[in-house]
Design a protein that fits this description.
Elements: H1 23-38, H2 44-62, E1 75-77, E2 81-83, E3 86-87, H3 88-107, H4 111-132, E4 140-141, E5 156-157, H5 162-170, H6 178-191, E6 193-194, H7 197-201, E7 220-221, E8 224-225, H8 252-264, H9 268-281, H10 305-313, E9 316-318, E10 323-325, E11 334-339, E12 343-349, E13 355-361
Antiparallel strand pairs: 1-2, 3-4, 5-8, 6-7, 9-10, 11-12, 12-13
Helix pairs in contact: 1-2, 1-3, 2-3, 3-4, 3-5, 5-8, 8-9, 8-10
Length: 370
């Protein structure tokens, strides 16, 4: 559409309003193209848009000059600024987008491009651990040539493994090894999850401001904590410095992403604890439970909550292959709804382990008087 540049593969993140790429969003467009293909009854959707998907992936590869799977150029992102350096969360999304393109390329018969994407993705997975894992969690290696850039440096950032979380949602290979992912998620729970966010906010030094989406006495997972220091160093010297105030905030869309990843990795206690904290903030006696406020009312990012549902059901679907499977993270009695490419229904598991699927097909509405 209007946001796509055929000559480069660039996707403007706010279409005609803001002609600039957001690197996390560019990766997300590629990943959700795979998701929508999996939710289609056949390959017609993918055939129609594959040339643009490939071009969009080639744009990302062009930003990875040495094709080592780690982006290092200016990386504009959802936190309203361009960051520089080696950034775990954006490069993890890049690796996931490469894996998604690899899958789609193979389905489209483009073996050469699939192989290229797979090789870069493998290097990226290796380098994420080799260069950006500090023994506990994944970090951001800053670029000294760009002091104007906001950064999370050695902080424990909420989205550090966003690519791995996405990979779980669409059945891709692992982006980082399980042990590293578990370690990073445990670090987030240890350092960034607070039963009373006020206790974090009143002690953090070096980062001014931040909106109160979780008020004193309420729990949440902050965007970035700094257990090893570095908070003051995160503030860039440019005009976007104001945006580091986000690091002190609790935005439910980010939190839901982590919840989904925790549940997918089998960390039920941690994942459900964060989820309950969000629900507690938005219980009807306090706020509107159907409006998890972020930048504005009814902000779309909170819909990441559906990812938590997918994760806890262990639901996977591939419409063109007519495949569907469930692997509930909760043992024993379980019941949940599902949606696939041609209908909806209920999956039920008894306490004895017996499994039942009740299925309903969509019936097209009649046309005219027929």
């Amino acid at each position: 559409g209007m946001a796509f540049h055929a000559e480069t593969g660039q996707i403007d993140y706010r279409a005609e309003y803001h002609r600039i790429v957001a690197h996390d969003g560019q990766c997300g467009c590629i990943l959700r193209a795979l998701r929508e293909h999996q939710m289609s009854p056949n390959a017609e959707f993918l055939k129609r848009i594959w040339p643009k998907i490939k071009r969009a992936t080639e744009f990302l590869i062009s930003e990875d000059k040495d094709e080592n799977g780690i982006l290092e150029t200016a990386q504009y992102n959802t936190l309203d600024a361009a960051w520089w350096g080696k950034i775990a969360w954006i490069s993890s999304l890049y690796v996931a987008a490469l894996r998604a393109s690899e899958v789609m390329a193979r389905e489209m018969g483009d073996a050469v491009f699939a192989e290229r994407c797979g090789k870069i993705a493998a290097r990226g997975s290796e380098n994420l651990v080799k260069e950006l894992y500090n023994g506990e969690y994944f970090i951001h290696l800053t670029d000294a040539a760009h002091p104007e850039s906001n950064n999370t440096n050695i902080g424990c950032h909420i989205d550090q493994l966003y690519g791995q979380s996405w990979a779980w949602q669409v059945g891709l290979p692992r982006i980082v090894p399980k042990e590293h992912a578990i370690s990073a998620l445990k670090s987030l729970y240890k350092y960034s999850f607070w039963e009373d966010v006020w206790e974090y906010r009143r002690h953090v030094k070096g980062i001014p401001g931040g909106r109160w989406y979780a008020t004193p006495g309420e729990g949440g997972l902050v965007i970035c904590s700094f257990p090893r220091g570095g908070a003051a160093d995160s503030v860039g010297k440019g005009s976007d410095a104001w945006a580091v105030g986000y690091f002190n905030e609790c935005m439910s869309g980010f939190e839901h992403q982590v919840v989904a990843h925790m549940l997918a990795e089998g960390m039920l206690t941690e994942g459900l604890s964060v989820l309950y904290a969000i629900h507690d903030r938005y219980q009807p006696s306090r706020r509107n439970p159907y409006n998890e406020i972020e930048c504005s009312d009814h902000y779309g990012r909170a819909m990441a909550s559906f990812g938590a549902y997918v994760a806890i059901t262990g639901f996977e679907v591939n419409g063109p292959r007519q495949e569907m499977k469930f692997a509930p993270r909760i043992k024993g009695r379980f019941r949940g709804a599902f949606i696939n490419e041609q209908g909806w229904g209920t999956y039920e598991q008894s306490s004895s382990g017996e499994k039942t699927v009740t299925y309903r097909y969509r019936v097209p509405k009649p046309v005219g008087n027929t």
